[in-house]
Structure prediction request, 368 residues.
Amino acid sequence: MKIPFVDLHAQYLSIKTEIDTAIAGVIAESSFIRGHQVDQFEQEFAAVVGVKNCVSCANGTDALYIAMRGLGVKPDDEIITTAHSWISTSETITQAGGKVVFCDTDVETFTIDPERIEAAITPRTVGIIPVHLYGQPAAMDPIMAIAAKHKLWVIEDCAQAHLAEFKGRQVGTWGNAATFSFYPGKNLGAMGDAGCLVTGDDQLAAWCAMYARHGGKGDHQIEGINSRLDGLQAAILSVKLPHLRKWTEERRRVAALYDSALADIPQVRTPQVAEGRTHVYHLYVIRCDRRDELKSHLASHGVPTVLNYPKALPFYPAYDYLGHKPGDFPHAFANQSRILSLPIYPEMSEEQIDYVAQKIRNFYSTTE
Ligand SMILES: *Cc1c(COP(=O)(O)O)cnc(C)c1O
Prediction:
């Protein structure tokens, strides 16, 4: 058997007529840029998340950058973020003119450890960027309490966590702003690059919209950037949005099947969901012994796996200048050599899941 890591084509086939009609509609109207499809998707997505404003943009990385510019990041401002994420989360801090301050993760949930945030706060700290990594919310209660106590802003990086909830409240509704990616493989994916930020703050939304569109259309108040969601992507996202809840349930189904199929393999730790959080399984990440050997074993049996990510952020050459050592982020460092992302997508069949689990079981029973 050959199993894809994600199967975007299966999803397309399940809604092909709707997608093709939406694309044809944009072409018929030539509403490629700033058409009504963009306004419509912004309104629909804001309603689904439960926030007042959605400002669409070109991708989830730009969304982080635009939000930080909107919050007024100045040179020497320090921003605390998690040691374990995709580099968009930290590179945009530098782009916006701030200084990256990494904080270790909670070893079980891979999200920023709130107990370690306060130690990283200095008089120059202005904000915190928690990431709801792999689809599990960060501990938003303590994070928001720390932010309030020290008068810091919070931007939630929701790129992997559409519809996830912390204590019954959706991610994206907690921070001063939150950012989403609609990269094709994300839980809500376009057919190209796309992203947005959401915020309950009308003034922040208005500034970010102006900044992302050259500082104001026709009457440039400031110099901005060009970061737009295009009409085709907006129309595609509007077709997919009503299916998101069902697809999320299907991801949970796949995760539950993996959980039980792998439960009794002592060398494997399945994803742990902390109390009060719902996980939307953008990725299904196990921690395992002899990770690299297991990875090649699975590859040789038609099961692709991915490392998300091969290193914790502080240990990439890009952050050599910070001079960090493994002991600075013991949890993120320990996890980087044990994590392995297994194939997951809503259309995955029970047979495929069993096959993956069987190959993992075989690896440990025949080689130990
Ligand atoms: C995908 C992702 C982003 C960036 O999204 P793009 O749309 O690819 O720019 C940011 N943060 C995290 C955690 C991501 O996974």
